[in-house]
Amino acid sequence: MRGSSLCPCLRGERFDSCCGPFLSGSRTAPTAEQLMRSRYSAFSVGDAQYLLDTWHPTTRPAVLELDPAQRWYRLDIHGTGAGGLLDSDGWVEFSAFYRHPDGGGELRERSRFVREGGRWFYLDGRVST
């Protein structure tokens, strides 16, 4: 993804000034919501390593294979709780929309995050139907 392109997380900023620095490792996400947005961007650009690196070790899978045919194109944030600069945990509820040759769809999830050693990690999520 080019740095001058709009960020996949749809905050309206360029990738290189939004989620790009998190995916490159030059910055860490300051809030649970920003980590969730950067993880969505990682799904959008196919960066499985970033997803594993930001997944809490107690719930992280050993391997993560992304489907290259699946295209993520829209992210809606429905709500957040805690997850700020002084919090140790938080949650983000969102919908992520995708297209696939087999059909498109929506993933709605309430994700939980924890902060350890000054870094936010994705812990787990509850998918809604």
From TrEMBL:
It holds the Pfam family YchJ_M-like. Residues 31-125 form the YchJ-like middle NTF2-like domain. Gene3D superfamilies: 3.10.450.50. HAMAP family: UPF0225. Belongs to the UPF0225 family. This is UPF0225 protein WDS16_07690. It comes from Rhodococcus sovatensis.
